Amino acid sequence: MANQRIGLIDVGSNTIRLVIFEIDQNQTITELQNIKTPARLVQYLEKDGSMSKRGISVLVTALESFTEIAERYHIETMIPVATAAIRQSKNAKAILKTVKEKTGIKLRILTEEEEAFYGNYAVRHTMDLKNGVTIDIGGGSTELTLFKDKQVVDSHSFPFGVVSLKRQFFDGKDHNDKKAIEKARKWVKEQFTSLKWLPDVKVALIGIGGSARNLADIHQRQHDYPIAGIHGYMMTGDELEETFDLIADTSFQQLSKLDGLSEDRKDIIIPAGLVFLELFDFMDSTDFAISSRGLREGLVIDYINRTDNQPYELYDIKRQTVERMSKRYNIRTIGAYQRILLSDRLLNLLKDKEIVDIDEEHLILVHYAASLYNLGSYIEDDSKSQHTFYIISNSNLHGFNHYDRVRLALLASYKNRSLFNQYIHNVEGWFSDEEADLLLSLGSVIKFAEALNDSHVNMVKDIQLSKNKNKDSEDKYELTVTYNGEVIAEKYRANKHKNHFERVLGDTVHITFKSETGK
After folding, report:
1. Could you tell me the residue range of the domain that residue 359 belongs to?
2. 237 and 136 housed in the same domain
3. Which tens digits make up the pLDDT trace of 215-230?
4. H or E stretch including 122?
5. Distance of CA 238 to the CA centre of its chain
6. Which of 10, 115, 379, 488 is the most exposed place for a label (fewest CB within 10 A)?
7. 128-151 as b/e, with b when 16 or more CB fall inside 10 Å?
């Protein structure tokens, strides 16, 4: 089945954007193109609430250009939507009519509730947080949605955004005017007090949209962040305030040199930042999480779920991500399944002997890593470990925060202790010594499980571990591997790599291969 292309036009208050998505047969969504123009349509709203002719002209010009681009990409499905700037215009119907006549595009104006829903829908389907408040701050509106156990509980749309806040408090003033910031923060806090469900809710605050991404980008650059990507990035309240203070202490001219800050947003990043800060404090939030998936992705995921039997689930995101990644890199299902079974068996044996203590979270992590083990061989077999670690740790994996991504990468790429230490050195300070030792042991188990299935035809039927009763042997343990078939490859590979299993045992082991038939 050929890949499907979906075009999404998002007419926002701050930017107008065309995003082209490609959906493959595994329902993996890939962004092919993302084109935007900082139209700032909200600034064309006149005193009577109507959008000026100039504003409508800016909109039509952008859409005419996007229509031509979409045609060249052979878009099959187009989803054109508009938000606050058009929604708040008194002449909204006339705008829609002009757009249809000039461009052929039938714009759909999202209600406040719909705008809040779709952004939150993307977060709930691509992040593993069960509870949280999403905030999507645009040019002319700010959407808040509270969800608990992945279900929406409350939502609200405020009729202010970064552009309108700039006009209200910073017009004719420096971007970082202290009195304007203080006044804006006080006003924003007053708006939040209108929501009875918001104070002291004590859940993660999840930022959606370009302003949240920019703040996270700036923070990452300031701290030489070792991996790529924004989705699933977590900041503390202190880190959020530190980043805001850095921007507020930087002159407007110098903002252009601030790594991570988009040139299009340097005049509105202060209004956005103060909203995040006030909301974080008002909620008594636990973390500031960043989602690079928002309104546009929510609309696309919703479209796919409605037209293709709900392939995107709410409660099993990590498993779905691993399955899609496995298919994308052509990992053989039968080999991955056997790696999981053998890793499970080895870990149970180690647990029975009280050598390794592994909880449910780490066991599931082993399953995911065994599924994706050495996926980097898709690029080059000789350096598959390096490619595996880089791909997994630097990919925006739905359901995995950045800490989880690196843990998964360390296990799925495990080759030897030297490379493991090299990889973990890049994220120095992320893991305690105990966690690092456990990850090293789990990677060693997966490596040895792969050795026991070297031919990938599933000949190993059982494994037993016992203390060696042979008094003449120097080995403390005996590993008995029961098999069915010819295991010449497994015998060679298991004995070659048994040092990895011995490291976990803390002692030597002798491996005996025993035929299931007794021959």
Report:
1. 317-515
2. yes
3. 999 999 999 999 999 9
4. helix 112-126
5. 22
6. 488
7. bbebbbbbbbbbbbbbbbbbeebe
Place of tokens 């107008």: 16
Question: Using only C-alpha atoms, what is the Rg of the chain?
Answer: 27
pTM: 0.92
From CA 164, how far away is CA 170, in angstroms rounded?
10
Structural domains in the chain (count): 3
Tokens at residue 189, please? Answer: 């806090």
Q: Is 50 left (phi over 0), alpha (psi -120 to 50) or beta?
A: beta
Other beta carbons less than 10 A from residue 276's beta carbon: 25
How buried is residue 457: exposed, middle or buried, by Cβ count under 10 Å (0-12/13-18/19+)?
A: middle
Per the structure block, which two tokens stand in for 61?
Answer: 């010009």
485: domain CATH number is 1.10.3210.10
Indicate the range of 59-63, 95-99, 414-418, 486-490 predicted with least confidence: 486-490
Token pair of 448 as six digits: 């040895």
What six digits make up the tokens of 414?
A: 């495990």
How far is 441 from 317, CA to CA, in rounded Å?
26
Containing H/E element for 173?
A: none
In this structure, are 86 and 130 located in the same domain? no
> What value does the mean pLDDT take over residues 31-56?
93
475 vs 435 pLDDT, higher one: 435
Side chain identity, residue 342: L
DSSP 84-121: HHHHT-TTHHHHHHHHHHHH----EEPPHHHHHHHHHH
Rounded to whole angstroms, the Cα distance separating 215 from 235 reads: 10
Residue 302 lies in a domain: no
Q: How far apart are CA 87 and CA 93, in angstroms?
A: 10
Query: Exposure of 170 by Cβ count < 10 A (0-12 exposed, 13-18 middle, 19+ buried)?
Result: buried
Give the span between the Cα atoms of 287 and 140, in whole angstroms: 25
Amino acid at 53: K
Q: Examine the fold and report which residue of 262, 296, 330 is the final residue of a domain before the chain moves on.
A: 296
121 and 103 within one domain? no
Q: Are residues 154 and 288 in the same domain?
A: yes
